[in-house]
């Protein structure tokens, strides 16, 4: 718990000093100076709790809406942008209240009944509540884990600890500015002599900044500054300690033994009882659509496959699963697919059914939209395979693609252990026709949306959710990165083209896939090759951009017509 709290605090501190916080600093400073001060009073006075109330409001609203915002908005049928506009409205009202005290008292009145907040400076807590909603987009690597937990409703005490400590860390630098404003208001005689003018000036600054935030004017300042915290964020994200603490292993006694399995090793291990499938919404390829259960499969060797239908890595693994199913199903092997969506569009039962039909999958598939079974297995990857012996014990874990011969050997070993007299056919792995993952050095899968963005390297523009942002392409794109050009509407899971939208991608691969949705076209330009136009239509799907016999190091530029949403690049 202490490690998790420390990680949350450090991640929050990095966010609290990052460029995204700069537009809030004048608000916090002036908010700290606008407490009530009597010019006739001496310099020595009682402690001013206004800065603490502002920070308390930020921590409360940040924690609440980060963890439960998507659930609350979905239940009320409100758009994702509601919180941001609500925060801007509060900021504007507090600014008006500073200029016109009568309006300020009206804003504070609903909070007079709160026992922990006295009648002096109640607006400080209200302002903090509003700023907390505006502070949510200021995210570092730690917030990604919090956001996923909140979006899936999978919130436990570990996530709460991580969120609250993250919010505290992010708010601490702001407390310094609020306290500085408060100290000036108490100790500088010029302020005390002109208190009304400073209060009105502070209100005007808040209103102007609210307008600037609403129209993304502050983005110009943020884009012009170097991302001086990116190095720290990368170190935090790549730390093995952080990865272990942030993994969706919200451990309990039922799955803690899974840690005994080292993923990818050839030797079978004994890693505790396999967790039962849970929290599923729908089952496919089962009698009457009834859920499959491990209890009902006792005596069989079970391969639990976590996948998502738009995941190219999963699609490349499917032919191997189909071959094993055909070769070993009658000999005691049962494959169970657990469809755990990467993206919201993958939660559609119709889309999952279409993918099952397209891939000719006949083994049972459970729909795990809330990642309940995923979490029970402490999973972290798409695809992932868990081998369970006939007694219900997890014996092997494999994350990602590859090592199919090794996995088949483990299947055969477990089948023989369950039935020593079984006559097994020759291994089928060498006969499978499937796309390979490519040689060492293939560009890793790349996500374009805000919540899981990877490998973005451009000269201008910063991913900010629920905003349309102007980006610039790199003249020379660094290896295994991409840049955005033109204007893009940034979402949590994708970016959507608006005006002059482009991407520039440097990759090493034989095959390149692009998950796209919407209606429009994408023109692919690779130096030395003729341009290629992709017609995009409908729900998200993987479109193949490159298909070569061997790996190549290339840079491509893609030009999008308006209305096309881009999710990922995958490589083979």
3D architecture notes:
- The structure is a single chain.
- With 572 residues, the chain is an alpha+beta fold.
- 40% of the residues lie in helices and 20% in strands.
- The chain is built from 17 helices and 12 strands.
- It has a 6-stranded mixed β-sheet with strand order 1-4-3-2-5-6, with helices on one face. Strands 7, 8, 9, 10, 11 and 12 form a 6-stranded antiparallel β-sheet that branches.
- The radius of gyration is 27 Å and the shape is globular.
- The two termini are 40 Å apart.
- About 7% of the residues have low confidence.
Helix content: 40-55%
Count helical runs. 17
Q: Indicate the overall shape.
A: globular
| Uncertain parts | 36-44, 111-120, 136-141, 222-228, 248-254
Euclidean distance between termini CA atoms: 40 Å
Largest sheet: 6 strands, mixed
SS class: alpha+beta
Name the average pLDDT. 75
Q: What fraction strand?
A: 15-25%
What is the strand arrangement across the widest sheet? 1-4-3-2-5-6
Order of helices and strands: HHHHHHHHHHHHHEEHEHEHEEHEEEEEE
Radius of gyration: 27 Å
Observed structural traits:
572 residues, 6-stranded mixed beta sheet, alpha+beta, 17 helices, 40% helix
Q: What's this entry about, in short?
A:
With 572 residues, the protein is α+β, with helices and mostly antiparallel strands.
Secondary structure topology:
Blueprint: H1 2-16, H2 25-33, H3 50-76, H4 82-99, H5 101-108, H6 122-135, H7 141-152, H8 157-187, H9 189-193, H10 195-214, H11 218-224, H12 230-238, H13 240-246, E1 283-284, E2 301-307, H14 312-328, E3 333-339, H15 349-359, E4 365-367, H16 372-376, E5 384-388, E6 394-399, H17 404-418, E7 446-447, E8 467-471, E9 482-490, E10 495-525, E11 532-560, E12 564-571
């Amino acid at each position: 718990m202490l490690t998790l709290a420390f990680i949350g605090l450090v991640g929050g501190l990095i966010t609290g000093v990052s460029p995204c916080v700069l537009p809030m600093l004048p608000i916090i400073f002036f908010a700290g100076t606008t407490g009530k001060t009597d010019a006739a009073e001496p310099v020595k006075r009682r402690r001013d709790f206004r800065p603490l109330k502002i920070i308390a409001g930020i921590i409360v609203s940040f924690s609440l809406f980060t963890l439960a915002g998507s659930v609350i908005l979905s239940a009320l049928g409100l758009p994702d942008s509601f919180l941001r506009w609500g925060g801007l409205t509060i900021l504007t009202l507090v600014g008006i209240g500073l200029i016109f005290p009568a309006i300020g008292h009206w804003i504070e009145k609903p909070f007079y009944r709160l026992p922990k907040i006295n009648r002096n400076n109640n607006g400080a807590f209200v302002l903090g509540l509003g700023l907390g909603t505006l502070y949510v987009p200021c995210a570092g690597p730690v917030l990604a884990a919090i956001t996923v937990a909140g979006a899936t409703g999978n919130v436990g005490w570990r996530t709460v600890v991580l969120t609250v400590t993250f919010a505290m860390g992010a708010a601490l630098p702001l407390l310094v500015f609020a306290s500085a404003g408060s100290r000036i208001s108490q100790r500088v005689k010029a302020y005390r002599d002109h208190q009304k003018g400073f209060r009105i000036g502070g209100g005007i600054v808040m209103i102007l900044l609210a307008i600037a935030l609403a129209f993304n004017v502050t983005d110009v300042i943020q884009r012009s500054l170097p991302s001086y915290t990116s190095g720290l964020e990368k170190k935090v994200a790549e730390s093995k300690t952080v990865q272990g603490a942030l993994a969706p292993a919200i451990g309990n006694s039922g799955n803690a033994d899974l840690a005994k399995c080292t993923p990818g090793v050839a030797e079978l291990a004994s890693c505790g009882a396999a967790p039962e499938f849970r929290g599923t919404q729908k089952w496919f390829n089962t009698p009457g659509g009834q859920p499959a259960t491990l209890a009902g499969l006792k005596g069989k060797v079970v391969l639990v496959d976590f996948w998502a239908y738009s995941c190219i890595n999963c699609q490349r693994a499917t032919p191997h699963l189909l071959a094993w199913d055909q070769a070993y199903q009658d000999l005691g092997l049962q494959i169970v697919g657990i469809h755990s969506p990467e993206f919201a569009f993958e939660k559609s039962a119709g889309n999952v059914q279409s993918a099952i039909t397209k891939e000719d999958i006949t083994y049972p598939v459970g729909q795990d939209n809330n990642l309940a079974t995923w979490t029970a297995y402490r999973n972290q990857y798409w695809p992932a395979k868990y081998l369970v012996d006939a007694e219900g014990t997890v014996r092997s874990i494999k994350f990602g693609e590859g090592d199919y011969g090794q996995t088949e050997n483990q299947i055969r070993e477990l089948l023989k252990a369950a039935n020593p007299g079984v006559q097994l056919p020759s291994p089928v792995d060498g006969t499978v026709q499937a796309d390979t993952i490519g040689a060492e050095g293939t560009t890793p899968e790349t996500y374009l949306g805000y919540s899981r963005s990877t490998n973005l390297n451009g000269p201008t523009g910063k991913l900010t959710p629920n905003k349309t942002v102007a980006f610039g392409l790199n003249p020379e794109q660094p290896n295994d990165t991409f840049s955005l050009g033109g204007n893009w509407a940034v979402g949590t899971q994708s970016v959507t083209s608006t005006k002059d939208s482009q991407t520039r991608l440097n990759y090493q691969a034989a095959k390149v896939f692009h998950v796209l949705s919407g209606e429009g076209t994408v023109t692919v330009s690779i130096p030395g090759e003729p341009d290629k136009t992709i017609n995009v239509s409908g729900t998200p799907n993987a479109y193949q951009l490159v298909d070569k016999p061997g790996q190549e190091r290339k840079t491509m530029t893609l030009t999008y017509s308006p209305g096309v949403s881009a999710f990922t690049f995958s490589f083979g």
